[in-house]
Design a protein that fits this description.
This protein has 71 residues and is mainly α. The longest helix has 29 residues, at 2-30. The chain has helices spanning 2-30, 37-51, 54-70.
Length: 71
Amino acid sequence: ATARLETLDQSRAEWNQRMQTWLQERSSLMNNANLSAQDKQAQLIELRAQRFNASEITRVEALERISEGKR
């Protein structure tokens, strides 16, 4: 049981790190004044698909909305 909890903790820590990295990258992209809103959206979709699998993308989008609400 302890090994499973350690594995779960490690998995959560890795996910949290991936999300922090993604949110920073996303913020940089969204703050890029040289891109149109349409270009930003296209790049976000492409980058999400590169960094996350299909089942993670829904979760990522929800966490992005939560992150936006905190600003």
